[in-house]
């Protein structure tokens, strides 16, 4: 609806002309008044036609009737407030728009929130020449604002800051601020990020007193000359002169009488800011009426040829994509929660984050400066839904949207320009390409030459500075960074050559959805192999699940569809390294191992220690070793490290004790641990751990001697299946090939290695090859039937032959299950042989046993790999040792029930009265998992609370499992980690 002063919702302009020019977020001594708190609120399901001839709705005037209004906290999303059920609900979409693609229009059914609050202006705000600004840090998606009944202006740009000068509208004493927030507006077409749509005033609202003779804006960039180690402070100040700049710690004090005096300040030798050494210096910028205090760091970002350098050294991003998401608050900032997340990143060797796909709360960046994280700061822009119509009318290329896009990038850069942690500006995400993006890039190049520009969608590299890709295969990385073996993604040879001359960065890779991703170590190896490759950012940091409840009060974390959305993208929003309830997934431990800043290599009695850091020696770490025999420590010590400069190695002799001859299976484990407290971890924090088998270990051989006597303690049924062991009901085994599909098994982001493998050169979206789980299901692997072929019993053996096949299938596996009674217990040898023409991989090859639910309360102890689950392509964090856990701690509550808990290489399992050991055959031992549900039950539940009541515990003893891969949005399991149909045998002992 069109109203004077307030453009219609379909207006492509970013806001009214009354908005002030964007500027840096500053901490100054000028007074501020927070307008956060409880506001009056009402929600209209559609844009109400209640404005008067001046465009003013009734509630904007003092004395309006507030009957029927509720109260709402600011900041909050109205769909996530306590009264959620009374209001509209969250919507999750990835690419598609939840409204018709009819730009720039939005439907009439446009949830509209009216907000209102009174506030009293402190006297200092209305004194003398003081001016007053009203600032909004984030409102989704459009706000119209009135003060004391007078129009202030309107704005869009949900995750961007807006300021108005309201001096002339304020009155002494009580004032009325009224804001109408529309969930949808033309700007919604620019905000199609893969996240929840969460309307409301979700960041701070503040009144700022602007003293006469104050500072309107201050830009401070600390440069470092890597050759001399000397710093230079580049300050740009808009305000009243004289202006004095001070860095007390460096003895710097410089006063400028007027703008003509402003010049870079040489500050002499300084400590560099890096993610490994986040050294900050306090800087004061003082005008006669206002003092700003900043914390700056000195570093130089440069692109030299195809290298991305910081302080003259190549930078490797070991980063994560980070959305702002909180299980209860959505995108509302919770400092303690954010700090915990950033500290968790640091403790897992993450050194960078991309603010996908919008600027975060400003304070997040101060935390990155302080904790040490390189930041790719991304603008609030995504128009992915236009992909559905081949980018027709895409705002990124339509001059009608030019102003809106330039407005977005200037608000992004101006707010955060002072952060030393930011090393790349990103124009946005998945918005196709076009002239408006090119103009945004040109604007950034001009405004801030100290940092390069990133945008993945600039495929041919015509306006950005690094070659960025998402989800490339390993083959593509080699071809981009090494010898060219395939065409460059979607571009011709000339543009391809340009891109191949640039630093290469993966803005997204390794899709951490559900159990996975696999192949993190393979990607790391590729990154390490090529100088041009500067690492990348895992997709993504957290699951975005929203805490909610079933009608009977069971808590769960909602994903797309759980709020009854008309269109949605289901579980694709649950693809994080950290689960919605803040639990780190095993993938995070895997990542920490793969990204460890220290690598060990053992060659006989010599240990090579490599410093994989970019900027810091290892003098803050101590290297320890532990020798274990059969999982028990027999000796340990520390090694004295000489200086190990970044990127170099040393080789040390091992102390004699480390290799002392002992009986049993021996492992040497090396750790690197911090000697001092860091702000993100206390002393003793282990940054690297690697384990090596000790050559010459003697693995105990199980008894081959038949026991006298019989099967008195084992009971079998007529079909030769075990029914009980020493009075404990144990049913099984059943041969099982099925696992509850992981998200990577279910989806088909890229082509499959199982079939023609055609999608892999182009990286994404080849749906012609079915997802693994579909293929497995077509072949009936989830519904195997068993037919006993024969049962032979003798004095010391029970031999059962079984044929396992699916309905309507002509292929299957034959197994011979032989039970024998020996000195050390009841042995089971299982020989499994496939027959027929198999044409798919197997999810697993295992034996299932059902155990009584009464065992569930007993702690589970095992000697084998741990502490977490691991799979063929995700095993860097696993070590062999002795572990104990509760039953439910053995599996991970991924957003949707799926395969979890596989721990290969089991030696012994002790669980209540059950003692099970494995026998190595050709050096291989099976793994185990324990769950209250069968793989089939886990396969069909969308959420954990949908699982049936369980009356047993399922023990799976797996010869092997298929790898994990990353195919939910990336490459399939690599052939070397795939489980191909095979004949095999395994042996276990019940003791
Ligand atoms: C990328 C996109 C992300 C996310 C991811 C899949 O294409 O940039 O926002 O959607 O795919 O989870």
From TrEMBL:
Q: Which domain of life is it from?
A: Bacteria
Leading EC class: hydrolase
Which GO terms are recorded in the biological process aspect for this UniProt protein?
lactose catabolic process
Any idea which UniProt keywords this protein has? Glycosidase, Hydrolase
Q: Name one Pfam family in it.
A: LacZ_4
Q: Which cellular component terms (GO) are annotated to the entry?
A: beta-galactosidase complex
Question: What range(s) does the Beta galactosidase small chain/ domain occupy?
Answer: 706-991
Question: What EC number is given for this enzyme?
Answer: 3.2.1.23
Q: Output the InterPro entries linked to this UniProt entry.
A: B-gal_small/dom_5, Bact_Beta-galactosidase, Beta-gal/glucu_dom_sf, Gal_mutarotase_sf_dom, Galactose-bd-like_sf, GH, GH-type_carb-bd, Glyco_hydro_2
Q: Which SMART domains match?
A: Bgal_small_N
Q: What is catalysed by this protein? A: Hydrolysis of terminal non-reducing beta-D-galactose residues in beta-D-galactosides
Single GO molecular function: beta-galactosidase activity
Q: Region labeled Disordered — which residues?
A: 1-21, 746-772
Q: Which family does the similarity line name?
A: Belongs to the glycosyl hydrolase 2 family.
Q: What is this protein called?
A: Beta-galactosidase
Q: Which organism is it from?
A: Nakamurella flava
């Amino acid at each position: 609806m069109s109203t004077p002063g307030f453009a219609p919702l379909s207006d492509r302009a970013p806001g009214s002309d009354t908005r002030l020019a964007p500027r840096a977020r500053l901490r100054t001594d000028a007074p501020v008044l927070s307008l956060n708190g409880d506001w009056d609120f009402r929600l209209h399901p559609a844009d109400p036609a209640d404005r008067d001839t001046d465009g003013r709705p009734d509630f904007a005037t003092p004395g309006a009737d507030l009957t029927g209004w509720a109260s709402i906290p600011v900041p909050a999303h109205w769909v996530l407030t306590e009264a959620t059920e009374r209001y509209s609900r969250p919507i999750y979409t990835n690419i598609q728009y939840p409204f018709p693609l009819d730009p720039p229009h939005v439907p009439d059914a446009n949830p509209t929130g009216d907000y209102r609050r009174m506030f009293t202006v402190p006297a200092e705000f209305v004194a003398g020449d003081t001016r007053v600004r009203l600032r909004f840090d984030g409102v989704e998606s459009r706000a119209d604002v009135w003060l004391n009944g007078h129009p202030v202006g309107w704005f869009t740009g949900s995750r961007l800051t807006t300021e108005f000068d309201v001096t002339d509208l304020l009155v002494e004493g009580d004032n009325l601020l009224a804001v109408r927030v529309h969930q949808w507006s033309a700007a919604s077409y620019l905000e199609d990020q893969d996240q929840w749509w969460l309307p409301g005033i979700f960041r701070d609202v503040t009144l700022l007193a602007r003293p006469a003779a104050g500072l309107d804006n201050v830009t401070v960039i600390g440069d470092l000359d890597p050759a001399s180690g000397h710093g230079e402070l580049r300050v740009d100040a808009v305000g009243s002169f004289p202006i004095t700049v001070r860095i007390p710690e460096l003895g710097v004090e410089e006063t400028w009488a007027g703008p003509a005096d402003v010049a870079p300040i040489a500050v002499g030798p300084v400590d560099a800011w890096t993610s490994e050494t986040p050294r900050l210096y306090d800087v004061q910028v003082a005008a006669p009426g206002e003092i700003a205090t900043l914390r700056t760091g000195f570093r130089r970002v440069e692109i030299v040829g195809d290298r991305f350098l910081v302080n003259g050294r190549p930078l490797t991003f070991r980063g994560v994509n980070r959305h702002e998401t909180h299980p209860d608050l959505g995108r509302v900032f919770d400092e303690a929660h954010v700090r915990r997340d950033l500290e968790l990143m640091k403790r897992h060797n993450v050194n960078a984050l991309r603010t996908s796909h919008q600027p975060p709360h400003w304070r997040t960046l101060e935390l990155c400066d302080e904790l040490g994280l390189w930041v790719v700061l991304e603008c609030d822009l995504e128009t992915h839904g236009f992909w559905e119509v081949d980018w027709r009318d895409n705002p990124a290329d339509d001059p009608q949207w030019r102003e809106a896009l330039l407005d977005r990038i200037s608000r992004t850069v101006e707010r955060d320009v002072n952060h030393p942690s930011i090393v790349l500006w990103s124009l946005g995400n998945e918005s196709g390409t076009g002239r408006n993006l090119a103009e945004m890039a040109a604007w950034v190049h001009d405004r801030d030459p100290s940092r390069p520009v990133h945008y993945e969608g600039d495929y041919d590299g015509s306006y950005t500075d690094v070659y960025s890709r998402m989800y490339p295969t390993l083959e593509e990385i080699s071809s981009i960074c090494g010898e060219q073996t395939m065409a460059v993604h979607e571009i011709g040879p000339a543009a391809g050559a340009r891109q191949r001359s640039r630093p290469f960065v993966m803005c997204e890779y390794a899709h951490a959805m559900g159990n996975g991703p696999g192949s993190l170590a393979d990607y790391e190896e590729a990154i390490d192999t090529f100088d041009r490759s500067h690492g990348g950012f895992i997709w993504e940091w957290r699951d975005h699940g929203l805490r909610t409840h079933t009608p009977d009060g069971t808590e769960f974390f909602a994903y797309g569809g759980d709020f009854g959305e008309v269109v949605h993208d289901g579980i694709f929003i649950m693809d994080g390294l950290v689960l919605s309830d803040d639990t780190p997934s095993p993938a995070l431990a895997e990542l920490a191992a793969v990204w460890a800043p220290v690598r060990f290599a053992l060659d006989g009695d010599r240990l090579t220690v490599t410093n994989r850091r970019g900027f810091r020696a290892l003098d803050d770490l101590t290297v320890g070793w532990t020798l274990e025999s059969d999982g028990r420590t027999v000796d340990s010590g520390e090694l004295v490290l000489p200086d190990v400069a970044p990127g170099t190695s040393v080789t040390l002799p091992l102390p004699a004790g480390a290799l002392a001859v002992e009986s049993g299976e021996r492992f040497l484990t090396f750790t690197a641990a911090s000697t001092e407290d860091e702000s993100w971890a206390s002393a003793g924090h282990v940054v690297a751990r690697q384990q090596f088998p000790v050559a010459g270990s003697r693995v105990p051989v199980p008894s081959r001697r038949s026991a006298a006597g019989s099967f008195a303690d084992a009971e079998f049924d007529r079909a030769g299946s075990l029914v009980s062991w020493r009075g404990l009901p144990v049913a099984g085994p059943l041969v099982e090939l099925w696992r509850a599909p992981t998200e990577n098994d279910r989806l088909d982001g890229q082509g499959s290695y199982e079939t023609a493998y055609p999608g892999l050169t182009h990286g994404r979206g080849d749906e012609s090859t079915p997802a693994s789980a579909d293929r497995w299901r077509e072949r009936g692997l989830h519904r195997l039937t068993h037919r006993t072929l024969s049962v032979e019993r003798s004095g010391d053996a029970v031999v059962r032959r079984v044929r396992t096949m699916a309905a309507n299938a002509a292929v299957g596996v034959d197994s011979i299950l032989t039970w024998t009674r020996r000195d050390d217990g009841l042995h089971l040898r299982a020989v499994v042989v496939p027959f027929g023409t198999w044409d798919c991989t197997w999810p697993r090859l295992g034996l299932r046993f059902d155990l009584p639910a009464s065992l569930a309360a007993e702690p589970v102890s095992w000697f084998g790999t741990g502490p977490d689950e691991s799979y063929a392509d995700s095993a860097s964090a696993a070590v062999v040792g002795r572990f104990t856990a509760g039953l439910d701690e053995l599996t991970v509550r991924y957003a949707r029930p799926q395969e979890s808990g596989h721990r290969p290489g089991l030696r012994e399992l002790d669980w209540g009265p059950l003692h099970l050991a494995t026998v190595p055959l050709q050096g291989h031992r099976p793994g185990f998992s324990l769950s209250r549900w069968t793989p089939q039950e886990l396969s069909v539940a969308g959420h954990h609370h949908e699982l049936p009541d369980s009356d047993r515990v399922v023990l799976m003893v797996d010869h092997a499992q298929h790898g994990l891969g990353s195919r939910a949005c990336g490459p399939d399991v690599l052939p070397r980690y795939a489980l191909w149909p095979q004949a095999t045998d395994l042996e276990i002992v019940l003791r």
